[in-house]
Structure formats: structure tokens, C-alpha cells
Amino acid sequence: MTDAPAENTPSPEQLDDEAEVFEQKAVRLAKRYKLIESGAEAYPVSVPVTTTIPAVRETWGHLAADETSGETVGVAGRVVFLRNTGKLCFVSLQSGDGSRIQAMLSLANVGEESLAEFKELVDLGDHLFVTGEVISSRRGELSVMATAWKIASKAILPLPNLHTELSEETRMRNRYLDLIVRDQARQVVRTRAEAMASLRRTFADRHYLEVETPMLQTMHGGAAARPFVTHSNAFDTELFLRIAPELFLKRAVVGGIDRVFEINRNFRNEGADSTHSPEFAMLEAYEAYGDYTTIAELTQSLIQNAALAVAGSHVVTWADGTEYDLGGEWDRISMYESLSDASGVEITPATGVAELQALADREGVEVHLPNHGKLVEELWEHFVKGGLTRPTFVLDFPVETSPLTRAHRSIPGVVEKWDLYIRGFELATGYSELVDPVIQRERFVEQAEQAAAGDDEAMRLDEEFLRALEFGMPPSGGMGMGIDRLLMALTGLGIRETILFPLVK
What we know:
Largest sheet: 8 strands, mixed
Oligomer: single chain
Radius of gyration: 29 Å
Distance between the termini: 41 Å
């Protein structure tokens, strides 16, 4: 059995004809069958690997052309290049981190039968094990001069063309192919892991405890968002996928865990765009005897430390080559003052809904179920948000849109809340937490009235949470930050690129 040169194998995007796809798969399945018939294995339980491709490169990368190491290794990787030239075959093996090494199979070293089987049975995409001496080729290419080889896993479908960029749709739907093909895709995974480790180190240094709270909840709350609804057969009850861990983390603070955080998944049944995903990773943290000022300092440290961990500097380089400075002290502006300056109209917490609605109408700003708070926030986004370039804490929000936040200690009509904007999008939000159970009940009642009026994002009255507050929650500061958006700030990529396996319709 023979096959066309593996380097000419078409990519999945080129295989538009189903018959051609079937033919490609059939050829490889026949090779799998022949391997098994010969007594070999197409998918062995293990191969005798002695080291990794990155380790070989680190140890022997200094070899000069035609120099030998005298060391025999056993390495494995995915075949990403293959050239058969008579008595000598060349194959490039790629490890999971993208590192590559050349393996050379010669008639003299592996024998006629083994070389013929290699030419017949090995394709691009296969996982291949080789053992042999580490050398540098005549052209100075670090290589393994193989004395034996074995297929570690037979690929039944062909790899994409490694020299042609995959479409975004293909990359999102087949992330495993994206990881094989693109260095950037692999780097984002490493960057995310390094950022997550940095966040946990920062929290540990500040004596925070990490906990886990329920994702299935009988009452959704902690944010203004539309939930996903499901049903428990075991309990015969309606349940909600959580939109935020806030109300349970606050229970933990009531119970005496004074510094607590969680990194986990949230679900919001809303739109998807370049900065929103229905399923996303969220960080929330609460600190007893803190407030929105101390929690802002914490948030700045978390992000700056993450930048140092992934970039070695507070200046990060985005995917398009832009440098963005996350260092120094970040700007702090008032929502009402910045809106007044940008719009040319003085807007305060006392400005009436009619006046705000008139301004929104003039500017073409549409607001669903408008009240003072929603109008102010939508107008602020219209007039101010687009002009923010540096990392900026936007302070002091309308009370109507922040039902879980303490009233401002000196400015009537607003609450002690900030939103952090980086790259023009909201990355995090922080509060001086509302811990008065009487006022919290009043806020929940207002939210329930909004829900009855048709606001799908309004929170419900949560008696269990109110009962916890009645046992006494200390003055606290709290914050929430989207992990996917943190990666956007560090890499300059869209949200789907920062999620390993994004939801695709």
C-alpha cells in the first residue's frame, strides 16, 4: 500500500467534498489495520520515552553542525513535517508546547524493512516515538539519528495545512487543531495559567482563603443578569445556574472567614460579543473591615502582579504589537462629574428622570425600563467610556443600579462602588458592601418590584441571605473580576480567544 507524500495532505478546510474526506480517512484506517495485522500497535498503552523535546533542545541546542552528543534518547511528538528521500527520511516532531526536533531515519541505522514500513505507515499528524543519538545535522539542525521508531498514536484525519491560517470559525469549533497549529493559541493557555497562579499567590500573601460555592442555586442573585434555568429531578424543583457567587461568599464572611475569594464559573443567559460570553470565569473576593478604597488597591495589585508573572513587566504587549502600561497608580474619576464634563450638562444624583431621558433621546441612547440610575449609566457609557485609555477606576454609582452596595458616606443618592476600565471595557467592579439587613431588604423589595414590571435582570428577594445578614456581617469591601477579561487586558485578544473552549452555536 502506498500513499501520496504526507506533506501534500489537504487540510480539513480544503476537503469540501465528502467523498474526498472519506478517501483520506479510509487510507489512514487501512494503515491502522495493517499495523495491527503486523502485530504492532496503532495506539500502544505507552512508549519508552526518556526525555522531552524541550529538554533535548535545552541540553544539546549548542551542538555545532555535524557534531554528535554521544547520548541516546527516546522522544515522542506529533509529526508536523515528513520527507521521504530514498535511503534517508526526515520527520519533524512537535511537543505539546510547540517545541520541535528533527528525527532522521536512515537505511543504515534502521534497516530496509523498518524504513519501508516507516514510509508506508507514518502520516502527518501521527504521534511518533523515536530512539537514537542526539546529533546536529550537516546543516546545523538539532536531530535524533533514529535507530528505532514506533507509532504512539495513529491519526485518522489529516492535519490542517500548517502554512495556511485557519479561519476563526474553524479555530473556535476545533480548538484542538488551533492548539496544534498556532503558537499564539498555546501561549494564551500558558498565559492564563500563569495569571491564575499569580492571582492565588497574591491572595495567599494577603491571608485570603479560597473557597467553593454552589453553581446550582435555588435563588439566583449577586448581580443584575438573566439566569439559565434548569430542573432538578432529584429534588423536583427549579434551579438556576449561578450568575455570581456573591451571596454565598458573604455568608462565609458572616461565618468568620474574614478574607475570602473564589475563582469559578458563572453563567448569564444574555448576549455574546467580543467582551461577553454566556459562560465565563469569575473572581470574587471579600475583606472584612475593608471598603471600596482598600479593595481597589487589592485589585490593582492583583492585575499588576499578573502582568509581571506573564510579561515580566507592568508593560504588556498585545497580540497586535501594541504596548499597554498597567504600572503606576491608576486614575480615579467620578461617574457624575465625568459625565457632566463630557456632556456639557450638569448631572447630579438629584437630576430628574425626565431631564435625563430628554438628553438620552437627543443623543439616540436607548434605555430599557429607564430609571435615574440606568439612564445615568447608559449616558456615561455614551459620553465617557470611549475616551478612557489608561486603567481607570470610575467611582460612585447611582443607588438604583447597585442594590448590594452601601450608600456613600458623604454623597446622597450614590453608592460606594467603582468599575475598573482597561482597554475601554469593564474589567472589574468593587464595593463597600451593604451589610445592614434592614436596608438590604428594602433594596430587594425594590428589585422585586422591577422584576414584576418586566425587568429580567432584577434580583429576587432572598430570605436565606437576609437571615444570614441578620446574624451580623462586619463592614467589608468586595470585588469581582472577569478572568477572561483579565486575559483580554494582558493579551489584547477578544474574549473567545482567551477561553480555551468557548461556547459556539
